[in-house]
Amino acid sequence: MFSGAQISLYPMCDDFVGVILGALSALDPYRERFRIETDDVSTLIVGPPEEIFPAMRDLFVAAAASGVHVVLSATVSRGCPGEPDDPRCTPLAGGARGPLDQRIAQARQRVAEATVLGQPVAAQFSLYPLGADAHMDEIYGCIDFLKGSGVFDRSKNFCTKLRGDAGPVFATLSDAFLSFGAPQGHVALDLTVSANSPTKS
Amino acid sequence: MFSGAQISLYPMCDDFVGVILGALSALDPYRERFRIETDDVSTLIVGPPEEIFPAMRDLFVAAAASGVHVVLSATVSRGCPGEPDDPRCTPLAGGARGPLDQRIAQARQRVAEATVLGQPVAAQFSLYPLGADAHMDEIYGCIDFLKGSGVFDRSKNFCTKLRGDAGPVFATLSDAFLSFGAPQGHVALDLTVSANSPTKS
After folding, report:
1. Would B38 be classed as within a structural domain?
2. Which domain, by its residues, includes B162?
3. Tens place of pLDDT for every residue, chain A, 201 residues?
4. Contact by Cβ (8 Å): A197, A64
């Protein structure tokens, strides 16, 4: 298993470097379990699939606390057959998974229990279950989960938009990534999260 | 057929609204053939698949001419079975397609003929051929094309990075999107393009 994300943070201000550097310490609690590499376009994090969205959440909320319009963009992936197995990517929760309706109910329960962080965000994302004939069944199941998540905003062309507090929004994104598509299958997720936008929604 | 993209432009400066508004006229030559809708997170363009990357190129080069660090992020899609057919998305070039090695050679030829625009960019992207058992064959074929494109920078986890002039880089991205994955199949592409970054590559 290999799982992780390529993450970029875009603060829309002259001091964007300062905002990014000021937010990076939010990743400190995750550094022990992740491999982290940065270049001029993105930061790679490789580690357990269940911690990818909590790490992105904490990084983004720290940057958004600056008050400037800030966007996090990420390419998230698990189970890519072109990547080497890595022990640090072993899922924390193993075992068999139930049918689609059961996974939807469990995912909603986890979102309902997510801690509210006091940071409003808008998010949109696309889920790609790869190498599977019935990929649209998993996508439609995921959309069903999203509609009852409490943070569903609307369906858009090519993606789904969420809106609400960063806590339940990132919990919803994490479950979309973990609970749909085959457990050992190749699943990718393309994510944009925005805060403090001057544009009315 | 349905094809288009959700596009966002991120100028890293206090006057990000001014930079975005100043670049939008670059889309004027495309407006007649595209449906364009904007909200607080992204701008949707729906139209012919061959014109999606030229439109994004012209928008991005106009924004990068401001000299500020600017990033374009996009979710590009064609053939999604969950989207309605739209006559404006009819491919300009129809007809049968050849085997993988022929498509690679033709794609390289088109990139070699791309106009140089004088704007250096870094780009990274992931290609997702969906609903297909042999999706990795098309991805590896695409990577083969990219390595001989003249703008290949390196393979990264979850994505491929390009670097060079905006003309051949966007031509390479366009051919990665159009020439790989089944002609009528569901193909998505997750894109980040960056210019004027203060970070050394």
Report:
1. yes
2. 3-91+98-195
3. 899 999 999 999 999 999 999 999 999 999 999 999 999 999 999 999 999 999 999 999 999 999 999 999 999 999 888 788 888 888 777 555 788 899 999 999 999 999 999 999 999 999 998 876 667 788 889 999 999 999 999 999 999 999 999 999 999 999 999 998 888 888 999 999 999 999 876
4. no
Q: Is A108 helix (H, G, I), strand (E, B) or coil?
A: helix
CB A192 within 8 A of CB A125: yes
Shortest distance, CA A169 to any CA of chain B (angstroms): 15
Q: At a CB cut-off of 8 Å and minimum separation 6, what does A37 contact? A: A43, A44
Does B79 reach chain A within 8 Å, measured CB to CB? no
Instruction: Tell me what percent of chain A is helix, strand and coil, each rounded to the nearest 5.
Output: 35, 30, 35
Which chain A residues touch B133 with a CB distance below 8 Å?
A: 131, 133
Chain B interface mutation, best of A190, A199, A201, highest count of B Cβ atoms under 10 Å: A190
The DSSP symbol for A155 reads E
For residue B120, what is the domain's CATH number? 3.30.70.930
- The predicted-structure confidence for B154-167, as pLDDT tens digits, reads as follows 999 999 999 999 99
At B14, give phi and psi (nearest 5°): -60, -35
Residue A159 resides in a domain: yes
- B200 within some domain: no
ipTM above 0.95? no
Does residue A114 form part of some domain? yes
CB atoms inside a 10 Å sphere around CB A34? 20
Is A6's CB within 8 Å of B42's CB?
no
> What residues 96-115 of chain B have any CB closer than 8 A to a CB of chain A?
none
- Interatomic CA distance for residues B146 and B142, integer angstroms: 6
Please give the tally of structural domains in chain B.
1
Residue A23: strand, helix, or coil? helix
Q: Is the CB of B192 inside 8 Å of chain A's CB atoms?
A: yes
Inform me whether the C-beta atom of residue B69 falls under 8 Å from chain A C-beta atoms.
yes
